[in-house]
Design goal:
The structure is a homodimer.
Chain A: H1 7-14, H2 18-24, H3 33-46, H4 52-59, E1 64-69, H5 75-89, E2 94-99, H6 104-115, E3 121-125, H7 131-139, E4 144-147, E5 157-159, H8 163-176, E6 182-186, H9 193-208, E7 216-218, H10 226-238, E8 245-248, H11 251-263, E9 273-275, H12 281-285, E10 292-294, H13 297-314, E11 327-329
Helix pairs in contact in A: 1-2, 1-3, 5-13, 6-7, 8-9, 10-11
The structure holds a DNA duplex (30 and 30 nucleotides).
DNA sequence: AGTGGAAATGATAACGATAACTTTTTACGG
DNA sequence: CCGTAAAAAGTTATCGTTATCATTTCCACT
């Protein structure tokens, strides 16, 4: 195939200067309708496609907003990307996505790569970064938004919530329902910082209620899938330890745990309560439905977009928007009325 | 914040020419170690980040591969993107993603936008496009890969499979298991072309077996979620029509249908068989596990990457790789041994 | 008709990087 | 020490677009 035609060739075909062609493609410019139509025809004829790269270089506006997420396969993050993407599209901007695989070193590499595309802003997931990554973000000269977390030392704006606090609310709910022997089922280590925060919130809340947080089940390396949730639940049950309720790092893990109970003939919530995190559609459809926390994943993205549009188009300085307040959704899997057992 | 520093400033700081700085950042160039280190220091000092945009303009290699998918929230497509992304990363290329929302007009807009970023290749989902979109792709001068489908008139390469044929295999399985009154549960209309193909394959297969394909349940506009699957199943059951088995457009819809049966006290597969499509993790974990077809979503992406790397780096012309052959995974939800009923 | 001024169009240089070429420096055998 | 080839560094022009300024065209109104 021949290489893509440029404005120069369109200009020649239309019998005008390159500058006039350039103007024909912008809304504001002063150009006669006749000329614009003539140029449009020539462009269509040649199959001309505007080069956003060259334009971006000249006007120093790439039209990109970069975003890093741990994994594309997690529908929570996919929702955030969706919210961001949809709302930015209205202002003609495009999201440039990168995946960290829950690894902050990988995140650093990724941030460097993304900044090389000269995005107009960057949205990252989480508030924990390598020292070099922080420096890159701070020195980038563009708005930075950290999401899905509440960093103690934010780089720019924040649109997130405390995963620990959210989990504390969940423990409160379980305790209110009469549970005492509560397990936490989540990933190993601290690679998934949101997971680690939730575990910490769990432990703190248990301590606060004077309960032992000795049932911390490691389900493997993040992200924890349904299968790993099922395995970990199996291991917990095999251990023979007494358990009232299981707090899972996500609805996916919770669903895995739930199915393991079903396979073993345990009734949820009659024999044991199971709760998740993330408000995945799954948890609202399965039988029984799973109590969870809705972090407003899509809204996080939408809010980030709104904030950025304010910064970029209206020249406002970065302001932290109203905080995200996750909502506890009490459903069948922990419904006390159905018989949460006391120990 | 100050604007990002350029090579010029790094050059001044290091006391060399811009060209030398440029060379310092490329592996091949002839440059002394001392100079390279000096430049590296200066660059770190200033927080210099390489501008891939400007470089791309000059060398005519953007480092982008564009891809369009119907929705980011569908884990099948997310897997394909993951496979593509991971394998392209090794060759230093980045995936630029766009979402069509199952709308070919939106796809056309998107393709135009993506081509404006001067990607080195473009991967699209499906084989149905607007006339203008076809022209854009054909005239783009870059390798084009159509995936997840087997277009009759391909634009470039194809890495896909026949959704109709795959569904025929599924019907064969159900018929073998003794089912006669088989329903199809999927989306309205033809917006989701893969869904429409599956429905067509279903109808053809039913006709081939001399069975009536009169149970075509419309579950709403694509994409069909779990909830819509559940609703549609409810409507089917409420209609009082006799049904042996239900063929769903995806595992998500199938799971929704399955839960609806559970809520109504119907046993799967004893009272009714349910099968899905897509080999989502969900279907392998839920109780009972769901019979499905594995389209090798991740492999589609990986194969596309391999093909493109051959085209771009080794100058080979576009060759269609070995075809994708979806695998029927027979699981509990249609297990004849457990008692698929004959009518 | 002639004139003033706005609208339309054109010419030039620049955005940040690099290919291609030229010049300077280094290294080494004789 | 010199000559020479190779390595290292510098110069210039360019990728496709647009800001800026200069020029031409057009029209309304005296």
């Amino acid at each position: 195939m021949a290489k893509a035609p440029t404005m120069k060739e369109v200009a020649k075909a239309a019998g005008v200067s390159v500058m006039t062609v350039s103007r024909a493609f912008r809304a504001d410019a002063s150009i006669s309708t006749a000329t614009r139509e003539k140029i449009q025809r020539a462009a269509d004829e040649l199959g001309y496609v505007f080069d956003a790269t060259a334009s971006g270089l000249r006007v120093k506006k790439s039209g990109f907003v970069a975003m890093t997420i741990p994994s594309i396969s997690n529908s929570n993050f996919a929702d955030t990307v969706g919210g961001l993407s949809e709302r930015l599209a209205a202002s003609g901007r495009q999201v440039l996505l990168g995946y960290t695989n829950y690894d902050i070193d990988e995140e650093e590499r990724l941030i460097r790569q993304l900044l090389g595309r000269r995005p107009e802003a960057i949205v990252v997931t989480g508030g924990q970064h390598t020292e070099a990554a922080r420096k890159l973000l701070q020195g980038s000269g563009i708005p930075v938004v950290e999401t899905w977390d509440l960093p103690t030392d934010p780089i720019g704006s924040v649109i997130g919530f405390s995963n620990a606090k959210a989990m504390e609310a969940m423990v409160q709910h379980l305790v209110d329902a009469g549970h005492r022997r509560i397990a936490y089922l989540g990933g190993d280590g601290n690679a998934d910082t949101r997971g680690a925060d939730r575990r910490r919130g769990f432990a703190d809340a248990m301590a606060h209620h004077g309960l032992a947080a000795d049932l911390l089940i490691d389900a493997g390396l993040p992200p924890i899938s349904m299968r790993e949730g099922a395995h970990a639940m199996g291991a917990l049950l095999d251990s023979g330890r007494t358990v009232d309720a299981v707090c899972c790092v996500s609805d996916l893990a919770a669903f895995g745990a739930l199915t393991e109970c079903q396979r073993r003939g345990l009734k949820v919530p009659d024999d044991i309560s199971i709760v998740g995190f993330g408000a995945y559609e799954l948890g609202d459809i399965c039988v029984p439905t799973i109590t969870t926390i809705d972090p407003a994943a899509r809204e996080i993205g939408a809010r980030a977009a709104d904030l950025l549009i304010k910064c970029l188009d209206e020249g406002q300085s970065e302001t932290s928007a109203a905080p995200i307040t996750p909502k506890l959704l009490i459903r069948q899997s922990s419904d006390a009325a159905k018989g949460g057992q006391k120990k």
